[in-house]
């Protein structure tokens, strides 16, 4: 452990320490602004002073600003659950993307690579199309998110078992297994889509496009707890990702238990991302883009990259949701459409940049 600590990121010796603190502070400030904007702007505009007064009122402080009952209801029943879910999902996607890119040592890795998103899509679409035949007691509001979460977890476990041989995990096989699982889940979703009625097709299309609409406190608390647990686990593993950057053999000689790091990362991604995707649908490119954006600004040390990617991911999702709500009012765009529209050009730029770096 002492050898690992000597190699890992040390903030006291970090020449970029001040710059990284400024980046983290700037991201926190931007995220606060985005959350306040998401709470005030929408089909019903709520003045910022009313939002602050309503929040203070729940904490027992009377600021003397009258808040209408309909504003209080819209804020606490619709806006804040949506903002909270955006924060949790964005943070989890950003950190999971950074962890998988470190684990696979591949800058193009993201949470969808290990099958969790495709598996969750199978579970959700399967429940939308086939769940009508389930008993009434099993057809509650949380049934579809549970089905999505369970299917995402099962797909990830399947990918891990395929990539595992003789008590070790082969990274190349794991990547190929993820590709195969995504192809299989795409085929299953396509078949279920073929079976669906017109009403079911509309519901599953909106789920697949991703969105934060319909979030309620009762639904999101269990999801937020799972995502908080996953984020805590990633924080513990941060030093291990820095050591793994030296190569598996060197990391092993320095005392890093590489296989345990792999298992822990895959489990945390499956739990955190699976829980988020179960409620929001597939929100693409955040897990890919957020780690790269923060690395470009502050370097690759994971004790910086993980919290910065969490803040950047949350900022992207909350901002995308705000844009989705106001771009075509009174209608609402799916958040996944917005993140994909922004992320696809970034992905192309990243590919071209890597091509330029590897060219002779």
Brief rundown of the structure:
The chain has helices at 2-7, 17-40, 48-58, 69-104, 116-130, 143-162, 171-195, 198-209, 217-244, 248-253, 258-280, 286-298, 302-326, 335-358; strands at residues 164-165, 168-169.
Describe this structure in words.
The chain is an all-alpha fold and about 350 residues long. About 75% of the residues lie in helices and about 0% in strands. It has 14 helices and 2 strands, in the order H-H-H-H-H-H-E-E-H-H-H-H-H-H-H-H. It has a two-stranded antiparallel sheet. A hairpin with a 2-residue loop joins strand 1 and strand 2. Helix 2 runs antiparallel to helix 4, helix 2 packs parallel to helix 13 and helix 6 packs antiparallel against helix 11. The two termini are about 40 Å apart. About 0% of the residues have low confidence.
Which characteristics define this entry?
2 strands, 360 residues, 14 helices, 74% helix, mainly alpha, two-stranded antiparallel sheet, single chain
Shape: globular
Terminal CA distance reads 39 Å
Structural class: mainly alpha
Main beta-sheet annotation: 2 strands, antiparallel
Gyration radius, in Å: 21 Å
Helix content: over 70%
Strand order of the largest sheet: 1-2
Please tally the β strands and state the result: 2
- As residue ranges, the low-confidence spans are 5-9
Q: What is the string of SSEs from the N terminus onward? A: HHHHHHEEHHHHHHHH
Share of residues in strands: under 5%
Mean pLDDT: 84
Given the structure, what is the number of helices? 14
Describe the secondary-structure layout.
Blueprint: H1 2-7, H2 17-40, H3 48-58, H4 69-104, H5 116-130, H6 143-162, E1 164-165, E2 168-169, H7 171-195, H8 198-209, H9 217-244, H10 248-253, H11 258-280, H12 286-298, H13 302-326, H14 335-358
Antiparallel strand pairs: 1-2
């Amino acid at each position: 452990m002492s050898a690992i600590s000597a190699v890992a990121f040390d903030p006291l010796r970090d020449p970029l320490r001040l710059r990284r603190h400024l980046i983290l502070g700037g991201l926190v400030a931007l995220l606060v602004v985005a959350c306040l904007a998401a709470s005030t702007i929408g089909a019903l505009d709520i003045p910022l002073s009313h939002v602050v007064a309503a929040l203070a009122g729940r904490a027992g402080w009377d600021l003397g600003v009258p808040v209408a009952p309909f504003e209080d209801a819209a804020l606490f029943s619709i806006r804040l659950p949506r903002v909270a879910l955006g924060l949790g999902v964005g943070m989890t996607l950003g950190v999971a993307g950074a962890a998988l890119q470190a684990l696979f040592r591949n800058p193009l890795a993201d949470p969808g690579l290990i099958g969790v998103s495709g598996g969750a899509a199978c579970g959700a679409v399967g429940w939308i199309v086939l769940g009508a035949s389930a008993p009434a007691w099993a057809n509650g509001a949380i049934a579809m998110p549970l089905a999505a979460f369970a299917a995402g977890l099962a797909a990830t476990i399947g990918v891990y078992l395929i990539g595992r041989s003789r008590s070790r995990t082969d990274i190349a096989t794991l990547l190929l297994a993820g590709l195969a699982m995504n192809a299989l889940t795409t085929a299953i979703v396509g078949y279920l889509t073929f079976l669906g009625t017109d009403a079911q097709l509309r519901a599953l299309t909106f789920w697949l496009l991703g969105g934060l609409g319909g979030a309620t406190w009762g639904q999101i608390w269990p999801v937020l707890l799972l995502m908080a647990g996953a984020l805590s686990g990633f924080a513990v593993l941060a030093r291990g990702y820095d050591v793994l950057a030296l190569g598996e053999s060197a990391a092993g000689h320095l005392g890093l238990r590489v296989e345990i790091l792999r298992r822990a990362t895959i489990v945390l991604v499956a739990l955190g991302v699976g829980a988020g995707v179960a409620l929001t649908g597939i929100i693409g490119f955040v897990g890919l883009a957020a780690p790269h954006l923060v690395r470009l600004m502050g370097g690759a040390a994971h004790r910086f990259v993980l919290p910065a990617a969490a803040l950047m991911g949350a900022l992207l999702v909350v901002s995308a949701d705000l844009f989705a709500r106001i771009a075509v009012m009174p209608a609402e765009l799916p958040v996944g459409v917005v993140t994909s529209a922004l992320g696809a050009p970034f992905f192309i730029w990243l590919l071209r940049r890597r091509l330029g770096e590897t060219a002779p």
